[in-house]
Amino acid sequence: MSFSHPLRNDPSAARLISLAKLAMAAEVDPRDTHGPYVIMQTGYVPGDLTMNAADYLLGRSGSWLAFHWFIRLPVPERRAEFVFGTVTEVMVLLEDLAGTVQVMTADGIVHDATPDEEWHQAMFGG
Q1: Domain extents for the chain?
Q2: Which residues pair with 44 in a beta bridge?
Q3: What's the superkingdom here (predicted)?
């Protein structure tokens, strides 16, 4: 049985996921050999008494967004906020990450949008 934890602004709690297998990978410039990337963490929103864990992605803004909303974002927004071309970009963001965890809400996300299955498979293997 695995136990979840609240989301943390702690680089050791995050996972770097390569998106190199996605068709769109070649469109990201600059990117390094294994890029592009997203930063993911599994946990629950701090203060959520239900402690329901989910996968969250870290954006350039320093805020986390639940994966189930991420794959419903329009592709340009998704790329602009959450896709990093190089490990250097990721490291700079993680080094500056501090303070209270901020979680983005679903405001402005098309709720009935079809999830992007290609991204889901690339990140979770199926």
Answers
A1: 11-124
A2: 6
A3: Bacteria
SS3 letters across the chain: CCCCCECCCCHHHCEEEECCCCHHHHHCCCCCCCCCEEEEEEEECCCCCCCCCEEEEECCCCEEEEHHHHCCCCHHHHHHHHCECCHHHHHHHHHHCCCCCEECCCCCCCCCCCCCHHHHHHHHCC
DSSP 8-state assignment for residue 74:
-
pLDDT in tens, 107-125: 766 655 666 677 767 776 6
Task: Give residue-wise pLDDT tens across range 57-87.
Answer: 999 999 999 998 888 888 888 899 999 999 9
Kindly report the pTM of this predicted structure.
0.86
